[in-house]
Amino acid sequence: MRTTARALSVTAVLAGTVALSACGGTNTDHNGMTGMGSASSSATSAAKVDPADVMFAQSMVPHHQQAVEMANLALTRASSADVKALATKIKAAQDPEIATMDGWLGTWGAPTGSADMNGMAGMDHGSDGMMSQVDMTKLSQASGAQFDRMWLTMMIAHHQGALTMAKDVLTTTKDPRVRVLAQSIVDGQTKEITTMNGLLSGS
C-alpha cells in the first residue's frame, strides 16, 4: 500500500510538473507568436504603404526643417515685428509636423529625410522651393530691413514648393492621416503666402 501510495504521489507530482511546463511553454509560445504577429503586421502595413506617401514624408521633413531654420534666423535678425511673429507661427506649426512625419516613417520602416537635409539644400530642386546653402549663408549674414525682404521672398518660394508637394500627394494618397496633414499644409501655407506678399508690398 505504501509503495502504491508513493507511486501515485510521484505520478501526481510529475503530472503537475508536465502541466506547468506545458503552460509555461504555451505562454512563451504565445508571447513569441504575439511578437511575431506584431512584426508581421508591421511588415504587412509597411508593404501596403503607398510609395508616394513615403516620398512625401521623406521630402517634406527636410523641407520643414529648413523652414524652421529660416524661422529661427528671423527671430534674431529680423527688424519687423510682423516678420518675427510670422516666423514664430511657422516654427510652431512645422515642428510638430516634422515629428508626425518622422513617426510615420519609423512605423513604415522607411529612412527619415532629415539626414539628407544638407545634401538637399545644396542641390537645385526647382519646384520644391528648397534654398541652396549659398542662399542660407546670404540670409544668415543679412540683418534689419534687408533681412526682412530677403526672408519674405525666400519663404514665399519655400512655401510655394511645399504647396506643390502637398497638392501632388493629395491626388494620390489613400491614407487619411497623410491627406489631413497635406491639406493642412495647403491651407496654412496659402494663408501665410498671402500674409508675406502683403508684408513685402508694404516694406
Number of strands: 0
- CA(first)-CA(last) distance: 108 Å
**Oligomeric state of shown chains:** single chain
Shape: elongated
Give the overall average pLDDT: 80
Number of helices: 7
Rg from alpha-carbon coordinates? 28 Å
Helical percentage: over 70%
Instruction: Estimate what percentage of residues fall within beta strands.
Output: under 5%
Structural class: mainly alpha
**Secondary-structure element series:** HHHHHHH
User: What composes the largest sheet?
Assistant: none
Detail the poorly predicted runs. 1-44, 115-125
Key traits:
mainly alpha, disordered N terminus, 203 residues, elongated, 84% helix
Model description:
By secondary structure, the chain is an all-alpha fold. The protein is 84% helix and 0% strand. α3 packs antiparallel against α7 and α6 runs antiparallel to α7. The longest helix is centred in the first third of the chain and has 47 residues. The relative contact order is 0.12. The N terminus is likely disordered.
How would you briefly describe this protein structure?
This protein is mainly α and 203 residues long. It has 7 helices and no strands.
Task: Lay out the secondary structure.
Blueprint: H1 2-48, H2 51-77, H3 81-108, H4 117-121, H5 133-141, H6 144-170, H7 176-202
Helix pairs in contact: 2-3, 2-6, 3-7, 6-7
